[in-house]
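Subject: ABC transporter ATP-binding protein

B.,
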Amino acid sequence: MLKRFFSYYTPWKGLFLLDFGCAVLAGLFELGFPMAVRAFIDDLLPTENWTLILLASAALLVIYAINAGLMAVVVYWGHMLGINIETEMRRKSFDHLQKLSFRFYDNHKTGHLVGRVTKDLEEIGEVAHHGPEDLFIALMTLIGAFALMFSVNWKLALIAVVIVPFMAWVTSRYGARMTRNWRALYSSVGDFNVRIEENVGGMRVVQAFANEDHERQLFARDNASYRSTKLEAYKLMAASTSLSYMSMRLIQLVVMVAGAYFVLEGELTAGGFVGFLLLVNVFFRPIEKINSVIETYPKGIAGFRRYTELLDTEPDIADRTDAREAPALNGRIDYHDVSFGYGGTPVLSGVNLAIEPGTTVAFVGPSGAGKTTICSLLPRFYETQDGTITVDGIDIRDMTLRSLRGQIGIVQQDVFLFGGTIRENIAYGRLDAAEADIVEAARLARLDSVIAQMPAGYDTIIGERGVKLSGGQKQRLAIARMFLKNPPILILDEATSALDTATEREIQKSLAELSKGRTTLVIAHRLATIRNADKIVVVDRSGVVETGTHRELLALDGLYARLHMAQELE
Ligand code: ADP
Ligand code: MG
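Prediction pasted inline below.
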């Protein structure tokens, strides 16, 4: 774990060493100042030589200035090191998220994932910077200050360190409790994010059900639990702050009384006395530092653990090592004995299909039968458990995901649009498309007249997930994307099911246009829309039950004929 953590320092070795060196130097200066004060009082004052006193002060000023510069450098470089490591980890996380399959996203909440890429990594960045540096400097000053105290007056030094075991006890006792507390806090922040994400994302549903009070109550519970965990943390913080303050002051007082005695006895000079008191401060400061490292370390490690957990999640669908770029596909598709299930129960078993290039195949059947599932296997959103799927005779697992998915276009019932402009959303079909191609795609999808009426034309912002567009407009945008992408294989998954019949009829025309010359897999809710398909596959919970043309299936008088009859009656 730690070894892996430190491997992130490797690219920044130079920066780390520079920063570390400056921090050590600054630490040494801090140790030196009390001794300088002692020399000032004991050696310089008795000379009564103002030139010397002013010269020494000037020298001190120079050293102070250097130290100030060092501090600035340490703060800046140290944080630079932290943010460099954080940025690299964030890049890796985001990169990895792109590779994880649908199955992963089926089982993870957006809010938690967002937290991992943002908050978690911020904590790690802090620890990456402060952890090793603060710990080392703290130990160095602790030991250094003690050695100096010992050299000034060993009896006084022994009296001063008597308090150390007590402070160590306070630190470890409160440290452990704080660690537990932070952990609880972070998990409640995660739940918090999920709650807010879902509430804000689903606000339309919340308000449509008038369930604001219910949401408020759920949120109030999380909010209250967050508050009480945090209050617990502050209570601990309050106790440990005042305890360590009190013990520090106590020891100072003891040192003062004992020191006064030693001075009067002639065992200690006045300068040594003052220097010693300053050293006591230098001695105790690292203990607070160590405290804060002990406090932030668990946060960082918890974050790092979650980070490695994410990175170690192997993408369950990836290019085989010997995968090749798919050639330009004709679109002949074959399913050979394909079986699949999402988890426990199998959804598909022994599905066989042969689809000629350029033809349209329709899938019909009751909801939940597995129509969408059959189509999801083709772009390898999920992996078949048994059997193979080939396109143009090539096993889809032998092609790279990119070259396979680049040649399959999907239009679904709910179109996911991004928050930008109409132009950007159409161009998502082919990122390097020229303006003229985008306009042409919009024309083919009959989106041009809609765009012409928009206030800013192609630059109109369509709102999060396209909320400012109607259902029909969203579908047209999705179709325009497909015209632009121009794939040989097309999947239309209930693309018009959510629309009213008039709009559906309009969109159907565009879809028919889009399907021309492409192998098209269409899932239809309303059978009237697929009457002319080259082949109709009837899917039931028991699998593919009938295949044929509209006429053949009617003649068969099976499930299709019954579904057809039912819809005709409507
Ligand atoms: P259809 O498109 O025919 O309505 P689906 O292919 O969407 O049916 O679903 C087939 C079955 O698989 C259903 O029982 C559904 O509950 C289940 N299912 C669909 N998607 C998932 C998923 N991502 N995870 C788990 N089960 C799923
Ligand atoms: Mg479906």
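The domain at 2-312 is CATH 1.20.1560.10 (ABC transporter transmembrane region fold).

T.
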